[in-house]
Amino acid sequence: MCAAVSAGGGRAAARRLGRAGGEAGVSRVHSTAGIPRRSRRRKSIAIAYESAQGDGAEQGTSEPQRPRWEPRDWRQQLERIQEMRRNRDAPVDEMGVEKCYDSSAPPQVMRYQVLLSLMLSSQTKDQVTSAAMLRLRQHGLTVDSILQMDDATLGRIIYPVGFWRNKVKYIKQTTAILKQKYGGDIPRTVEELVQLPGVGPKMAHLAMNIAWDSVSGIGRKQHICSASEPPLLFHLPVPAGPRRRPVPGAVPGVL
To answer: What average pLDDT does range 111-140 have in this prediction?
Structure first.
């Protein structure tokens, strides 16, 4: 009986402890009800992406552009050149290639005369070239007349242009090619013109401008580009051949 009483007393004690624990638990819950519970979720991170190139224009923004390189004092130099050329009284204005051909001749003959005057002008003053062209025109300056003329007569007429012996050879060879390949006319492209004997890139671009009224490039003297600081580099095609040499310091493929 004592064991039963002790067992019953133990169960009663356990029930009293359970009620006390429950009340304590309720009191703990009520005491922490005003404190916010920490969330187990991770905070979201805002991710921003850089705009791709070109998107700046759509969003109203643009990247700063680098200043373009300009030659030093080029505006002052241009103004001086314009002042010096204001009267157009240099020998080239009165006796240059544009004044050497017969403007009343048929277009095909006129273009041939333009090419020949350019070939004669190499390493020659404008006054000498103009006089040689005038003498040639007096003998009838056409493709057929040059082909029928012997080398000695041609050399006597064009003398004293620079390297006149070589020019006699080049004129005869070029004229024969024009007769056989182009029907007596001159080529219409720079690439074909520079293939003619005695015709370089500068002559070809000037021929395109004067004879064909087409601007294909800028004729320039090599020593001007070499002496400038920094050297002037023109993006012109370099024709094949041992005598075609680019400007010193120029990039291959660029004159």
So the answer is: 96
With beta carbons less than 8 A apart as the criterion, state whether 129 and 120 touch.
yes
In the set 43, 125, 202, 221, the catalytic residue is 202
**Distance between CA atoms of residues 93 and 121, nearest Å:** 14
Q: Has 202 been annotated as catalytic? A: yes
State the residue for tokens 């019953």.
8
Summarised one tens digit per residue, pLDDT across range 193-231 is: 999 999 999 999 999 999 999 999 876 655 455 545 555
CB distance 211 to 192 below 8 Å: no
What is the value of pTM for the model shown? 0.60
CA distances from 231 to 200, 201, 214, 246 (A): 20, 18, 27, 12
Q: Which of 115, 101, 99 is nearest to 186 (CA)?
A: 115
Query: Average pLDDT for residues 84-111, to the nearest whole number?
Result: 92
